[in-house]
What we know:
By secondary structure, the chain is an alpha/beta fold. The chain has helices at 4-10, 22-33, 50-62, 81-92, 115-127, 146-150, 162-176, 182-192, 196-207, 215-221, 227-238, 242-255, 260-271, 278-296, 301-316; strands at 39-43, 70-74, 103-108, 132-138, 152-156, 179-180, 212-213.
Amino acid sequence: xxxxxxxxxxxxxxxxxxxxxxxxxxxxxxxxxxxxxxxxxxxxxxxxxxxxxxxxxxxxxxxxxxxxxxxxxxxxxxxxxxxxxxxxxxxxxxxxxxxxxxxxxxxxxxxxxxxxxxxxxxxxxxxxxxxxxxxxxxxxxxxxxxxxxxxxxxxxxxxxxxxxxxxxxxxxxxxxxxxxxxxxxxxxxxxxxxxxxxxxxxxxxxxxxxxxxxxxxxxxxxxxxxxxxxxxxxxxxxxxxxxxxxxxxxxxxxxxxxxxxxxxxxxxxxxxxxxxxxxxxxxxxxxxxxxxxxxxxxxxxxxxxxxxxxxxxxxxxxxx
Length: 320
């Protein structure tokens, strides 16, 4: 099982250890080396290194005094205007310790801040820019008001590629002395969908069962629908056998405990492997999107998936 060794020794603490965001790392490192960073806005998917890069910047700036000059808040937990007026403002107005002339406040998940809190934050960023810099992290920069975006240097993070996640996992594997097959790493990457945090969690949960990690073992830990099962469901539907397709779908969802949205994602991926015309694939993709929207809005997943299978049956019969 992955122990605290990784937590203490491998957690990235230098720019060179952050994988997959080379262009962003170079620019941020250049700003940090000047000991005078602007307000920063990190935007992008979860598990791509936003919080890690913020911590590296602070440690590089303040060295051993970083804890005294750093405040981290998760805006999704503390998202009201009082947080900005009290915690943020009280920390921002005091002078920093050490050679760097400012402190750093890191607001994680800043897109969860209420509009009122963002307006208050805008004024705080303006009034205390001499003594404090802000690093904001969010999944969607469009949810951050324009006045805040214009005060920040914006960096857009991307999902990690397979080579980046594999490099990261190999470092953990070496430290923890566990055995992982190349096929297992492939499945971990597919399951993570470019999210490094999710990939690490998959590795840890699998390593808790056995130090010899195989593709089959990883598959049991991933709660996604298996492509071969979804292919059977769709093959039945395209052949016109709605009853068998429905029964197989129910079997997949109940026995494997797969959620409706996960089944939708698996179907969407499998559509492009089907032996049908490209025009039909486009129509089926559109139908998949409609079903996913209805499920998200609160419709019964199994009813919507049955409706989707009916579309596949009609497509197979040439009536879609």
